[in-house]
Amino acid sequence: MIEFQRIQKTYSLEHYRYDALKGVDGYVDSGEVVALCGPSGAGKSSLLSICSLLDNNYKGRVIIGGTAVTKTS
Ligand SMILES: Nc1ncnc2c1ncn2[C@@H]1O[C@H](COP(=O)(O)OP(=O)(O)O)[C@@H](O)[C@H]1O
Ligand SMILES: [Mg+2]
Question: Among 1, 43, 62, 71, which one is least packed by beta carbons within 10 Å?
Answer without folding.
Answer: 71
